[in-house]
Prior knowledge:
- The protein is an all-alpha fold.
- Helices cover 68% and strands 0% of the residues.
- Helix 1 (9-30) packs parallel to helix 12, helix 3 (56-68) crosses helix 8 and helix 7 (153-167) packs antiparallel against helix 8.
Amino acid sequence: MKELTKRNINIDFIKVCAVFFVISIHFFLNTGFYKTNISCPRMYIMVGMRTFFMMCVPLFILITGYLMNKKVFSIKYYNGLKKIVIPYLILTIITLFARIFLCQYGIFDTGNTDYYLKEFYKFHIIGYAWYVEMYIGLFLLVPFINKMCSNNRLQDTALLITFSFLTVTPVVIKYWSKLWIITYYMIGAYIYKYKVKVNQKYLLSAFLCSIIIFSLINIFLTRGHNFQLYGLDNWGVIENAINSTLFFLILLNINLNKLSEKIKNIISYIANLSLSIYLSSYLCDKVVYHYFNTYITNTTAKLEWFIIIVPIVFICSTLLAICTNKIYKILTNNI
Length: 335
């Protein structure tokens, strides 16, 4: 493996964690968790696990704010879209042909040309591609969000508090809740600009308390029936805002310099493929869980399989992402 250009190893490590968390959270989506009554210790454990892994998407947005808060408007800036759009299109084509082929095995429903065109238009060929649709919008707004922020810490703090109040806190102003993406971006940018540092012991204590408290709340609210969000445990809510920010700060301040260069390069390599791994996991999920759910039908019995199924999907998704990256390089070098 060629040594990658110098990167922030902590940010790369957070990316690896985030993409692993994505695959982990989809374990619950694909194993019948949301259709199963929360009424036994195994299901309580799964609720706690879900609470933890829900940090995945917020972590990606925090990273974006941390890395892109200095970007300014220019024609050259939009060239960066190719790193999002081209891998997405490559994997969309791969997934489309795979879906058509796998229809005969019952893994996907059959469809005609009109059906697939509508699916493509809606970003539905890849079932998890809503993230790409969302991220393209964020990418287009980044230079203007950065312009909105200042170099005055008091003013930026007030702006961040205002956005947090409007988007992620449980208040009556629900119309602004969809802008949670910008709030996470601002948190990441704020951490970078003002070099936010907190004692690791305090961070770890606060994070553990937060995860335990919110897990217990989620169990209490949902026990006795199927899992319900209740406006608490979704991407853009106070629960994830607190958990994700604390976890981000913890990993950002871990000393990873003692790792060997080989390990660092592996982390950076996987981090560089994180978007493609994310998108590849949809196809891998469909195949793996189709056969897994055939043999293990009881949702509560699937808990211990987490440590086997999730790594399998992660490895398969990474291999598909590597292939995508090779195609991407061929295309970009020749266009």
